[in-house]
Amino acid sequence: MQTKRTILLTVSGPDRPGVTSSLMGALAGVGVDLLDVEQVVIHNHLTLGVLVSTTGSAAAVLDAVDLPMHSRGMSVELAVDATSNGHRPSTHAIVILGQPVSAESFQAVAAEVASCGGNIDSIRGIADYPLTGLELMVTVADDAQADTALRAGLVTVATRFPIDVAVERGGLARRAKRVIVFDVDSTLIQGEVIEMLAAEAGREAEVAAVTEAAMRGELDFAESLHERVKALEGLDAEVIDRVAAALELTPGARTTIRTLHRLGYHCGVVSGGFRQVIEPLARDLELDFVRANTLEIVDGVLTGRVIDEVVDRPGKARALRAFADQVGVPMEQTIAVGDGANDIDMLAAAGLGIAFNAKPALREVADTTLDHPFLDAVLFMLGVTRDEIEAADIEDGTLRRVPLES
C-alpha cells in the first residue's frame, strides 16, 4: 500500500476569473485528494491555500500547477507533510472597532492574545463605515481561567487606545441569539425623555442632575423617578406628543433594528422612561415588545405620578425574561443593550450584555462595551458585516451613508 503525504499549496497574486478553476484542473491531472481549501481576497490580491493528499511526489504536484499559475501572474509556494487542524472551531471571536484602527492598537491586541497562549486562526474586515471593524477568530485553552484572562487582558488594551474590543465565545452560540432589547434614553435615542418633558416645565436642570446621579447608581432608581416625575405636575398632556415628535434616534439605530429584523430577531425596548412617549417610536421601528413606565394623566393634565409597576433596575431584568418567555427563547439567546446603572440587572441576565457609552457601574458587569456613538456597531459585534447590511439595503432601496463629521 502506497503511503500518502500531505502538501500545502499557497497561490498568491492578482485576483482574476479562472484562477481557482485552473488550479483545480491542474491538480485533477495528478490525482490528488482535497483536504482543505481557504481563499482570501484583499484589495484585488488573492491568496489561495489548498491542502491536498497524494501518493505521488511533491515535484509532480509542483510541475503540474507551476505553468498554469505563472501564466496567470500567480506565485506558488509548496510545503510538504503539512498538517491539518481538523477544522477545530475557534474558541473566541474578537471584534476590534475604531475610527480608525491603528497598527499599534492591533499589535497590542495580537500581543495580548499571544500572552494568553492563544493563536489567531483568521482575520477579516467586517466594516469600513461608520467605523473600521476587524474580526479575529482565535483559539485559547478552552477553560474558564483562559477565558477570564483573555477578556481582562483585552479590556486593559482597550483602555490604552481609542478602540472598542468585544470578546465572545466562538461556535454556534454566537450565532444563536434571537431576542434583543434596548434601553431607550441615551441608547436607542439621544438624550433623556424625562429631561425633555421637564424642560417644558422649566425644570430641566434640576431633573437632569437627579437623572445623572441615578444613572451612576448613586440613587435608588424608583425613588429618583418619583422625584423627577413630580416636576411634571400640572403640564398639559399635549406636551407628550411634542416630546415624542422631537425624539432623535442614535446614529445607526434604524439600520440596526432593520437588519436584526431581517435576521429573524425579536426586537424590543425596556425603558425607565414613559410608554406614552415611546410607543409612537416603537410603532415606527416595528418593535415587538415595549415595557416602560406609565405617566398618570387626569383631565388632560399630568399629575406628577406614575401608575402601575415601576420599571426600575430589577423590573428591567423581569421584562427581558418576560419578553424571552413570550417568544419562546431561552435567556442565553438574548441580548441587552443599555447605558446606565439601572440596566445592570438586565445586562447581567442576558446571554450577551452590551454597555453602550455607559456609566462605570454598568461597564463593570457588561460582557462588552461600545464607546463609539454608532448603534450599528452592535451588528458588527454579532459578526454581521457592513457589506452584508448594505447588500440587503440595496435590495429594498434603503441604502444610505450619512457623511460623518470630521
TrEMBL record:
Q: Give the active-site positions.
A: 183, 185
Question: What pathway annotation does it carry?
Answer: Amino-acid biosynthesis; L-serine biosynthesis; L-serine from 3-phospho-D-glycerate: step 3/3
Biological process GO annotation list? L-serine biosynthetic process
Q: Which GO terms describe its cellular component?
A: cytoplasm
**Cofactor(s) in the UniProt record:** Mg(2+)
EC number(s) for this protein?
3.1.3.3
UniProt cross-references to InterPro entries, sorted A to Z = ACT-like_dom_sf, HAD-like_SerB, HAD-like_sf, HAD_sf, PSP, PSP_ACT
Q: Which Gene3D superfamilies match?
A: 3.30.70.260, HAD superfamily/HAD-like
Q: Which residues form the Phosphoserine phosphatase ACT domain?
A: 90-168
Q: One GO MF term, please?
A: L-phosphoserine phosphatase activity
Provide the reaction this enzyme catalyses. O-phospho-D-serine + H2O = D-serine + phosphate; O-phospho-L-serine + H2O = L-serine + phosphate
Q: Which domain of life is it from?
A: Bacteria
Alphabetized CDD domains for the sequence:
ACT_PSP_1
Keywords for this entry? Amino-acid biosynthesis, Hydrolase, Magnesium, Metal-binding, Serine biosynthesis
| Name of protein | phosphoserine phosphatase
